[in-house]
């Protein structure tokens, strides 16, 4: 049963019956009939509408266009309403076309056509409301809401209750609300829109359900979700298959975010899909849902459909977004990126839909396109300035771009925005680690607290980093707790420790235990799992490092070995074991470990530098240099440590050679300086390079500048337990010494000893002694040397120095014009000791070579003996003087006694006798005194010249002595790469290298010799001086020589900066010759 | 097992104190503490008040590096950096003998448990000198043979520079420690070198046998470790770490359950031998602790355990060990 229209046949009662659902395909037939029969216009309209309903748009248009042709206008001139209706229909049709059309030009063409039709309609009757409504809708379509509103108003003025106008007005208001940026104003609009809808419904309660949709949307926008739901439900009640209502309800259900709601929502969506499979909204939401359930195939299908059916930009954007997301989650970043890009392209401004920007940013970040990623995230940020995820992403990119400050700022903001975002706190903390460990620790602790409060799993890295920060702060117990927590249920650890405690090692195979994994095998055989996940290995390593720091080296070594047992490629564990071996002077073990590390990676710069240090230690200069170079090349010169070491190498080379070629020395120094500068350019915060530069400056005599450098380095070095720069203290002390500030130098040496060496470094004690010596604090000097001997019993040089100090003390005491018998006696004792020390050395040298020339020692012995003889005279003299004083006193006493006696007994004769006796005594005394005076005279002669000498000797030391004795350490890279796992190892290696340097520095202290020599020379020169006592003629002669020799002097300056080993093996002959020579020089200078 | 501080005598010497030993109790007096210092004096102290038992004893030059007491408590020896050993009567401070064995230096000394021999670490002579305690004549010199495996020679000429000696409680064995870290064990009666104990590579400054077991030897080394050896089996039984700097001195408690160590890190540590771990750290000193000594048992009415420690800070500390 289908509807039909009857076209009255002109001039007849007949009618042509046209069955509406059997309209001919060719509309021309109908048009012909209509024209021929001059059918009323409303029939034209009905048929056109029917075509439209059946989707036969062409026919629809054809009929209407025919129906609005000028001839029709003429013919039906007085049929106004129908003509208007036809024009309006055409107008509406073109409005629709324009709305749907994507190409701007055709869109505009359609709008122009529509406008023309409406205008024609208006010309027929300007008051026809439906024309106004049509015009209004055209304006809505064009987006000209204000214009639309006024058009609708005109219609409403005609009829307050014009439903179409009311609905139009409601629509305008709603869209105004949509377009409004300000929330409050938008709400106003929605409210007004809601009012219009209500009016429309009141005016026409039976209007189709669709009208209520708008009501629902308004309610929804106003936040009245229940009422909105009711409205949509009502629509569905009226029309169970209304897609919009289904979708709207579905969305609302989905938004409840509860399982139940989501299920209902999905049911609605499915229904909408069943009803009309081409609704992009429902397709998108379905796709969205299936994305979350992981059914990517469905996602793609649905989205493709959505794309095929919909032409709305935002919808397309959503669809592309869904596709992109799907690929993204599947890890196909390239495709994902393309779809995100497509999605983004559909969006006019990020406010509409920010998510694809975020996704695109993520993909770009993943693909390393940091710049574009950043700009995309920033777009998201424009929309959601407080979004934590975006902030973190932006911050992360800034970190990657090296814009730390910016990143810090952003992460700080993120933590402010969401004080519960542990991730943000973690990132912030990690960023702060290199620059502000204190703040970093606090931040990471907050992250930890958040995670714990939320009951979430705490990542190992977080605990690891906190542990490291505690460690660095020196809070070892907290650090240990944290590491243990990070390692989790480490029951096997304590078990392991317990077990290894009982293992007994054969001494002969002492080093073998480091290779012995049987203990671990045993434990595994017993069913104890030693497995630990890879992400805990860093923490395990750090824990071992901590154990090392708190001197539990046994356990530390077990842990390192455990790491190697499980992960045999873990180079750092080998290197730590090597470092531990080195610390205990187990060189063989160290070398084995390093070679093991090199087996894994023969280009590992850390292993190479360590090896080079060891080679340097064993005096293998050339090899060491090659190894350093290899290390430098292996790291492409980025590893400042090896460069720095090369600098040191050059410096040492400059000061070591015995036959000093000034040229060679200058080249080496220059080269060293160059290398230090290079390191400083690479890494301006490198303390060790700065220290090295300071040393070179001091070497060249720029003490003030070098002092500044050292002071700054010293300040910078205080603070971290990983930076232990004793050298800079020593260098500073050297500078004080060089400038003659002995008291300051003494303080500095002492503090250094106490702070860094637990007072165990005999080398620094030697420096100290040297300073005391220069300051003429003989007893302090002697005692310092004795302490040094006590610490380093086999260092005979120290004994020699002690002998010299005592000799010097004695000599200087004897020089004094006034001295007590006690002093002289002390002198004698010390001289005796000196003789003993020297003779012992001489005896010992017969079967030991400590590098002393026997002849020289013998000279000392003889000189001391000579002094002793002299002193004996002095001593006797002094003792006599004392005796005499005593006698004087006695005499006085006896005098008084005699007086008394005389008074009592009056024995004149006795008195006379007494008197004569006294006279005799006196005579003798006078004689003695004269004698003594003579000797004194001689001494005086000497001491004047001695005074002169002193000045000279200071000067001499300034350039001769201390310059070379600067010690320094190889550098340490303060590489601030402290990303999670990395960092600690870095630090360790640094530390380790530092330790290596330490040892290296010691080794280099061939400079010992330097100081010793200097002492020795002074001593000897004294001895000559004493010998020359009284022979002023010779002195004068020597003076004359010295002048002529002056020029040669700098070149001849003594230097024996040879490492001990060198001296043991080859050098002793040459060296002593050198000494002899220089002795002469000095002595000449002095007079 | 614990230590409790009893008293600290500040400025007990004018200079760093380097050596300490307990003089066993005799019939008419309790045990005394003997200390030697850089100030070239040797002093005797009464316990527990740490009051001087005699005026400072002189006769040394260049600082006293070692003191030892005869088990009888009558005689004691002190040695100084000038390589003289002075043997004196504890009661009267009269010199009994002055010993020297040039060119050998003198470092640690220890009387044989029965008191017949005084063993002296001979420094660069690479030997231990044995002195007869009745005639005060040098009776033997136990030399360390040159080791086959040539370790890279220590550049300080340390080689087999002998620093420390220890007698096994049965008097059959003598161990000596040297600069390069090796420990040599001798059969005293046959005057024969037995073997080395490896594991240290830095100076071993102090050695002591367990009073209960003649096989167990403890060594204190600059490498911050104390090793526990089975000296007969050549085995390293345990390596005790904990000190932050050189371990300068080690002594075993008379009950054999504990050892005490003194270190450059300014602390005295007590180690439980069953746990093989440090159980207590004393921090009464402000500088290197050069010597620790447990008081030997004996004497009337003295049962309480005592530990003394001396330091570079010129002070002596006395602890109750229980």
TrEMBL record, chain A:
<dbReference type="GO" id="GO:0016593">
    <property type="term" value="C:Cdc73/Paf1 complex"/>
</dbReference>
<keyword id="KW-0802">TPR repeat</keyword>
<feature type="coiled-coil region">
    <location>
        <begin position="875"/>
        <end position="935"/>
    </location>
</feature>
<dbReference type="InterPro" id="IPR031101">
    <property type="entry name" value="Ctr9"/>
</dbReference>
<feature type="compositionally biased region" description="Basic residues">
    <location>
        <begin position="965"/>
        <end position="979"/>
    </location>
</feature>
<keyword id="KW-0677">Repeat</keyword>
<feature type="compositionally biased region" description="Polar residues">
    <location>
        <begin position="1057"/>
        <end position="1067"/>
    </location>
</feature>
<feature type="region of interest" description="Disordered">
    <location>
        <begin position="942"/>
        <end position="1087"/>
    </location>
</feature>
<feature type="repeat" description="TPR">
    <location>
        <begin position="388"/>
        <end position="421"/>
    </location>
</feature>
<feature type="repeat" description="TPR">
    <location>
        <begin position="726"/>
        <end position="759"/>
    </location>
</feature>
<dbReference type="InterPro" id="IPR019734">
    <property type="entry name" value="TPR_rpt"/>
</dbReference>
<dbReference type="GO" id="GO:0006355">
    <property type="term" value="P:regulation of DNA-templated transcription"/>
</dbReference>
<protein>
    <recommendedName>
        <fullName>RNA polymerase-associated protein CTR9-like protein</fullName>
    </recommendedName>
</protein>
<dbReference type="GO" id="GO:0000993">
    <property type="term" value="F:RNA polymerase II complex binding"/>
</dbReference>
<feature type="repeat" description="TPR">
    <location>
        <begin position="209"/>
        <end position="242"/>
    </location>
</feature>
<dbReference type="Pfam" id="PF13181">
    <property type="entry name" value="TPR_8"/>
</dbReference>
<dbReference type="GO" id="GO:0006368">
    <property type="term" value="P:transcription elongation by RNA polymerase II"/>
</dbReference>
<feature type="repeat" description="TPR">
    <location>
        <begin position="354"/>
        <end position="387"/>
    </location>
</feature>
<dbReference type="Pfam" id="PF13414">
    <property type="entry name" value="TPR_11"/>
</dbReference>
<dbReference type="Pfam" id="PF13432">
    <property type="entry name" value="TPR_16"/>
</dbReference>
<feature type="compositionally biased region" description="Acidic residues">
    <location>
        <begin position="987"/>
        <end position="998"/>
    </location>
</feature>
<keyword id="KW-0175">Coiled coil</keyword>
From TrEMBL, chain B:
<dbReference type="InterPro" id="IPR036322">
    <property type="entry name" value="WD40_repeat_dom_sf"/>
</dbReference>
<dbReference type="InterPro" id="IPR001680">
    <property type="entry name" value="WD40_rpt"/>
</dbReference>
<dbReference type="InterPro" id="IPR020472">
    <property type="entry name" value="WD40_PAC1"/>
</dbReference>
<dbReference type="Pfam" id="PF00400">
    <property type="entry name" value="WD40"/>
</dbReference>
<dbReference type="GO" id="GO:0016593">
    <property type="term" value="C:Cdc73/Paf1 complex"/>
</dbReference>
<dbReference type="InterPro" id="IPR019775">
    <property type="entry name" value="WD40_repeat_CS"/>
</dbReference>
<dbReference type="InterPro" id="IPR051510">
    <property type="entry name" value="SKI8"/>
</dbReference>
<keyword id="KW-0853">WD repeat</keyword>
<feature type="repeat" description="WD">
    <location>
        <begin position="282"/>
        <end position="322"/>
    </location>
</feature>
<feature type="repeat" description="WD">
    <location>
        <begin position="57"/>
        <end position="98"/>
    </location>
</feature>
<feature type="repeat" description="WD">
    <location>
        <begin position="155"/>
        <end position="196"/>
    </location>
</feature>
<keyword id="KW-0677">Repeat</keyword>
<dbReference type="InterPro" id="IPR015943">
    <property type="entry name" value="WD40/YVTN_repeat-like_dom_sf"/>
</dbReference>
<feature type="repeat" description="WD">
    <location>
        <begin position="10"/>
        <end position="45"/>
    </location>
</feature>
<feature type="repeat" description="WD">
    <location>
        <begin position="240"/>
        <end position="281"/>
    </location>
</feature>
<protein>
    <recommendedName>
        <fullName>Anaphase-promoting complex subunit 4 WD40 domain-containing protein</fullName>
    </recommendedName>
</protein>
